[in-house]
Design a protein that fits this description.
The chain has four helices and eight strands, in the order H-E-E-H-H-E-E-E-E-E-E-H. With 182 residues, the chain is of the alpha/beta class. A hairpin with a 4-residue loop joins strand 7 and strand 8. It starts with a helix and ends in a 9-residue tail after the last helix.
Length: 182
């Protein structure tokens, strides 16, 4: 019974871990980020991103919302240019809670002091893993100054997709500016 309970708990933890977005950032340590107050999207770079136009719009709306919430102003003459890059790949996870094989184990209440059994079990999960990069570029110097990367599981469901994108963008931009602790 303990093995079954442990397997269920492990599987729930596994599913929970897969649903969240993992974030990593990189930035130029010599930059003073408080000098940036305005932003615009880098259209040439965004046009090259190979995802649907609907998903691009969702991502850009989410980024704009987060940047405005941080106190930035959208501008025709920006301090920062925002670029994105996205990619997706199919991910197959195989979870084997019981292993495979036979052996002796004790079940004194059901089968006397010893029992014999074994078996195997596999749970296969196929999902789409997405990666979203958000690049912040110094508009005057034309140099990348900050990059955030979010990795997580995507959904084809429209409502869930919108939620995924907002979660990705929110968690990525939560890390900007560097040293910003939330």
């Amino acid at each position: 019974m303990k093995t079954v309970y442990f397997s269920i708990v492990l599987f729930v933890v596994f599913l929970t871990a897969c649903s969240s977005v993992q974030v990593a950032t990189d930035y130029d340590k010599k930059i003073s980020f408080d000098q940036y107050k305005t932003f615009a999207f880098y259209k040439d770079g965004i046009d090259k991103v190979e995802i649907s136009d609907l998903d691009k719009k969702r991502i850009l709306r989410a980024i704009e919302s987060q940047m405005l919430a941080k106190g930035f102003t959208k501008s025709e003459n920006p301090d920062l240019m925002v670029n994105i890059f996205a990619k997706a790949k199919e991910r197959v996870d195989v979870y084997n809670p019981y292993g495979y094989g036979y052996g002796y184990y004790g079940y004194p209440y059901f089968y006397g002091p010893y029992g014999y059994g074994g078996g195997y079990g596999n749970n296969v999960s196929v999902s789409t893993e997405g990666v979203l990069f958000v690049d912040l570029i110094d508009a005057k110097k034309k140099e990348l100054i900050w990059q955030g990367k979010g990795t997580g599981v995507l959904s084809d469901n429209i409502d869930r997709k919108e939620k995924n994108i907002n979660e990705f963008v929110s968690k990525i931009l939560e890390q900007y500016p560097p040293g910003n602790k939330k």
